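Predict the holo structure. Ligand: zinc ion.
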Amino acid sequence: MRQSRVEKILPSIGNMTAEECSQLKQALKARESQVEGSVVLQKRSENIAGCPHCGSASFKKWGRYKGNQRFRCEDCAKTFSPITGTPLAGLRHGEKHIANAKYMVAGMTVRKTAEALDVSVATAFRWRHRFLEAMSEMNPVELSGIVEADETFFRESFKGRKKDMPRKSKSRGEPASQRGLSREQIPVLVARDRSTGKTLTQVLPSRTARDIGVVLVPALAADAVLCSDNASAYRTLAKAAGIELRCVPANPKKKGKGEVYHIQNVNAYDSRLKGWMFRFRGVATKNLPNYLGWHRYLDVPKSRPTPKKFLTGALGD
Ligand SMILES: [Zn+2]
């Protein structure tokens, strides 16, 4: 009887040196991550409902390409794979995506990810942002019950931009030229449903009632009670939209014990976000929504998503 592939290898493991063991371990680890990625793709192939080009439900298997099943539409005659039409379509080295997902769950920097995946920094950067594009769109649909809202700020950054700089370049770590709030600070709305922990984070064009309202009001359920600081923008938008609003006293000493209306959950989220962002040493403002989406995805109570779930999420399933 033909020996299985494993049976062939096992006897030679008995006299391996420590160095060979570590080589084999590495090879197995790499192979494992490839297989995990195929599981995700295999599942997608089984669940394809229609041609991504024309939507037709009549398509046939059409050979394999680089290990991936391909299909051909019988109506438009175009071919496609399980990742056609997803943010990951057209990316080479498909087998490395699951490993990439793993490093993203761990919040690894681009440079370290590139090293671990053995791809260039530019490639790791491109993959990262393809993954994140899919996620940055996902904000919770509805916040209900007590909803805390506040803004936080990120310094404007043109990191990575080489041409058409709107102002003179700064060296890293140079302080913003104006203290406190200025145009160099990009406001981000953070709103959190206290009971579910669902969080909305979105870059705002400004902190006016109008700009905050456009983002916040559609996300609030009819029963929502909004908690904010004393900023007049919230009073204005709550009045205009007929939302029940509780303002937190500006002076925390005046706050009674056991007070239900506070914004401590939003403040805590904000410090987790800032703490997590610190490793990236400032992100380009144009990429800020991607990072916000990434953090929202990872900051879930109890358990972080697995790399498999992360990859599946990036594929839009
Ligand atoms: Zn078609």
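The first strand starts at residue 59 and ends at 65. Residues 51, 53-54, 56, 73, 75-76, 78 surround zinc ion (CB under 6 Å).
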